UniProtKB/TrEMBL annotation:
InterPro entries referenced in this protein's UniProt entry, alphabetically: FAD/NAD-bd_sf, FAD/NAD-binding_dom, Ferredoxin-NADP_redctase_2
Reactions this protein catalyses: [thioredoxin]-dithiol + NADP(+) = [thioredoxin]-disulfide + NADPH + H(+)
Organism: Actinomadura luteofluorescens
Xref: PANTHER family: THIOREDOXIN REDUCTASE 1-RELATED-RELATED (PTHR48105)
E.C. number(s) listed in UniProt: 1.8.1.9
The name this protein goes by in its record: Thioredoxin reductase (NADPH)
Listed Pfam families: Pyr_redox_2 (PF07992)
Residue intervals of the FAD/NAD(P)-binding domain: 6-276
Keywords: Flavoprotein, Oxidoreductase
């Protein structure tokens, strides 16, 4: 292989991409990891729920991961992928080109936030999404849930496990009687009216309604619209169903040789889940490469045998014609 030819190109260096690269590099595959340096969880100070890494800053995890992957000989390339051609030719912004036998796409997703003032400014700090990621850190505090999506009701019911003071701000949601009863039974207070802004300075102070009333809160939860960064996958023709690229349990897509892992295919995947997805994909992908390697070796072996037989016949014929058989 030349310097720009690899067994596997991994696009995206979050937990999923790095773990895939780690397993493949340890399997002595030639791996290139291309990443633009824009992790989804960059605003978060800590990550939780990852055994042995609980409370670790996300950036620190990625630093350790990159060092481990590089230690096994993988190439780490800081760049944005512009396009991938079938085959696979990976074209980077700026003109560089890589070629690979297989492709792992771990480009994640982007959180599309509602246009409520104060939300983007505090996102990942005390305007939050995942109770399992952040609920313990804001336990026993006054919490709010913004009714920006149908999932807000479930989110509010779930958050009662962490606080006795949870308010669901209906905002633009239209709740039916059963939902209202469930909230009341669970002890979640419902505040009607459209949300004007999240009040914050160095931290969240409350939620202001369009009528001018402010309800004091110390943290606010909401469901963003999660948009997968799957343009590379769809550009290669990978099938999409219900807004997600279709994969099997290992991350294999409908396009031969292409795997997709992490939030690009599963918006619910947390860091530890994404890392596991990367590992599973790497093992399946390596088995796929092994099959190809064995078939190539068999073809070469048969070709050598065929040449040997031809040479033997030629030598016998030359010996016969030269009179060696008298």
């Amino acid at each position: 292989m030349s310097d720009d030819e690899y067994d596997v190109a991994v696009v995206g260096a979050g937990a999923a991409g790095l773990n895939a690269a780690l397993v493949l590099a340890r399997a002595r595959r030639r791996v290139a990891v291309v990443d633009a340096g824009e992790p989804r969880n960059a605003p978060a100070a800590h990550m939780q729920g990852f055994l042995s890494r609980d409370g670790m800053p996300p950036a620190a995890l990625l630093d350790v991961g990159r060092a481990e992957v590089a230690g096994y000989g993988a190439a780490l390339i800081g760049a944005r992928v512009e396009h991938v051609d079938p085959g696979f030719t990976v074209r980077l912004v700026g003109g560089a080109v890589l070629s690979a036998r297989r492709l792992v796409v771990a480009t994640g997703l982007r959180d599309e936030l509602p246009g409520i003032p104060g939300v983007a400014e505090r996102w990942g700090r005390d305007v939050l999404h995942c109770p399992y990621c952040h609920g313990y850190e804001v336990r026993d505090q006054p919490l709010g849930v913004l009714g920006t999506s149908p999932g807000a009701v479930h989110q509010a019911l779930l958050l009662r496990q962490w606080s006795e003071d949870v308010v669901l701000f209906a905002h633009t949601l239209e709740l039916d009687e059963e939902e209202r009863e469930r909230l009341t039974a669970r002890g979640v207070r419902l505040v009607e009216g459209e949300v004007k802004r999240v009040v914050a300075d160095d931290r969240v102070r409350g939620v202001e309604l369009a009528g001018g009333r402010t309800v004091p809160r110390r943290a606010v939860f909401l469901f963003p619209r999660m948009v997968p960064r799957d343009a590379l996958l769809t550009g290669l023709g990978c099938a999409v169903e219900d807004g997600r690229v279709v994969t099997d349990r290992t991350g294999r897509t409908t396009v031969p040789g292409v795997w997709a892992v992490g939030n690009v295919t599963d918006p619910r995947a947390q860091v530890v889940t994404a890392a596991g997805m990367g590992s599973a994909a790497a093992i399946a992908l390596n088995a796929d490469l092994l099959d190809e390697d064995v078939h190539r070796a068999m073809d070469q072996h048969r070709a050598v045998d065929q040449h040997r037989v031809v040479d033997q016949h030629r030598a016998i014929e030359q010996h016969r014609v030269g009179g060696g058989g008298r």
